[in-house]
Amino acid sequence: MERYWNEEIETMSREDMKKLQDERLVKQVHHVYDNVKYYRDLMDKKGVKPDDIKGVEDLHKLPFLSKADLRDAYPYGLLAVPLSECVRIHSTSGTTGKRVVAFYTQNDVDMWDNCVARAITAAGGTKDDVCQIAYGFGLFTGGAGLNGGSHKVGCLTLPMSSGNTERQIQFMQDLHSTILCCTPSYAAYIGETLHEMGLTPDDIDLKAGIFGAEPWTEEMRLSIEKSLGIKAFDIYGLTETSGPGVAFECCEQTGMHINEDNFIAEIIDPETGENLPDGEVGELVFTSITKEAFPLLRYRTRDLCVLSHGKCKCGRTLVKMTKPKGRSDDMMIIRGVNVFPSQIETVLIAQGYAPNYLIEVDRVNNNDTLDISVEMNPEQFSDKVKDMQKQERALADAMKLMIGINPKVHLVSPKSITRSEGKAVRVIDRRKLHD
Amino acid sequence: MSNVKQISVFVDNKPNQSAGVMRIIKESGINLRALSLADTADFGIIRLIANDTEKTVDILRAASYAVNVAEVVAISIPDSPGQLSRVLDALGQDGVNVEYMYSFLGTSDNAVSFVIRVDDNAHAAEVLTRAGIIQLTENDIAEM
């Protein structure tokens, strides 16, 4: 029997969901127009008035918000309530530029916790579970988001934060954790460490993992599931809309259900901004219809994915999004070809390598170079140089098939690529194209 | 069979990599009998023969190195012109393919020793015996 956290919402008919969204959207547009000068100016410039928005079908009339807007408006420009109403701030990692800060009222935090509770329930979590949270705690939304949802469900919560991997495993054993929450790259590292400590999945009680905050492939899912003996669930979110829990995977593992009573999702053509129908790949755009403090309308996530409204076997009617192929920030354009780190990861795991790699892009004599360092597989180590070079060539050929351009593959020692305890750094781009 | 066990270690093509391997071996009190380094643009393969193969493999694996053990042929030939050529001729005429080889110090001033990595150890041993070449055993090497 599938369990739901908010059965009424999660299995609501499409008509009722639309009605709910219409109502909340109309109210939200007024709230934003009245309280956020930055967005009011954008609407005025586009000639749209709050009364023009009567339902979801009018959403396309509203202007987009991008990450650049959030930076321009830093820190208070998109705040829609007095600061005295806010109870918390979270922030993006700021690795791609100036930080983005997001504000939360108590209602916003409750809504967010509720979204995460749905995700934990969909992963099989109940108040009888022990939930180990190995996401970083702090300004990053990972730790706080899963912590809030875990409390809401009533799990015994271990707010471990990330790092100190052997201690993570020690706690996992001593306190019988049943659910692990962290980034997929850290889950892979915990699995690797478990085996290095001479333990197997039989020595721990984990049954499920909820992993997100970075893109990961199906191949990586299978490898984590095997090394930890669990079922691994994806969770999606972004600081700009709240944090993890905007969408979550159910037991079907065929896409993530979007909590669309709080976030309306659209797919647009990233070039033209036009809406695209179900089944087409495009950029995911979110409109927060219940957030009070930081209510972004039509926020462009830069994540590329596909939406589908078909009813899921799990009984949920919430629209599903595919795993983002990658954030368009992660996409590299090399010799004119779009390349995602996730494509490289797919090849590596399929060829029996660990998902630890480093992609280096540079430009030499006006030619892009792509170098991929991969940890060699000790089981395939040969004393013959030609055998090892054959392995490098086979990997390069498989990658060429996947991405369309020829990379240079370098085998490096096992464990020589730094392990990530949070979001993994996979790409170093040394090209200086604009200076 | 008189084959000798050779240990290979994968090292990155970066400063201090071989030194790291040697430091671990030194600290464990293992004595090396033979060593060669093959290198490519990306990585190197250290090949060595130690007086205690099992222990060497254990400590290197414990330090996360990729390690492989292969059986190789070790020979001792007189230190005079034309001797190695005689060995390689014998192997070549019988179709034994040599992957790589390297020399190492023996105990005698009048002889030199070689490690030879071939595809087919049994075949090579037979050819060498027929040609009257002295093949070294694990014991011979351990006692050096």
Task: Provide structural commentary.
- The complex is a heterodimer of chains A (435) and B (144).
- Chain A is α/β, with parallel strands linked by helices.
- Chain A has two domains: 1-329, ANL, N-terminal domain (Rossmann fold); 332-429, ANL, C-terminal domain (GMP Synthetase, Chain A, domain 3, 2-Layer Sandwich).
- Helix content of chain A is 31%, strand content 23%.
- Chain A has helices at 7-10, 14-35, 37-46, 67-72, 106-122, 141-153, 165-174, 184-196, 218-228, 341-350, 385-403; strands at residues 86-91, 101-105, 130-133, 156-158, 179-182, 208-212, 231-237, 244-249, 256-258, 263-268, 282-288, 299-305, 307-308, 320-321, 326-327, 332-334, 337-339, 357-364, 367-375, 408-412, 427-429.
- In chain A, strands 4-3-5-6-7-8-9-14-13 form a nine-stranded mixed beta sheet.
- With 144 residues, chain B is of the alpha+beta class.
- Chain B folds into two domains: 4-70, VC0802-like (2-Layer Sandwich); 72-142, 2-Layer Sandwich (VC0802-like), CATH 3.30.2130.10.
- In chain B, 33% of the residues lie in helices and 38% in strands.
- Chain B has helices at residues 17-28, 53-62, 83-93, 121-130, 138-142; strands at residues 4-12, 32-39, 43-50, 67-78, 98-104, 111-118, 134-135.
- In chain B, strands 1, 2, 3, 4, 5, 6 and 7 form a seven-stranded antiparallel beta sheet that branches.
- Chain B starts with a strand and ends with a helix.
- At the A-B interface, helix 11 and strand 20 of A face strand 1, strand 3 and strand 4 of B.
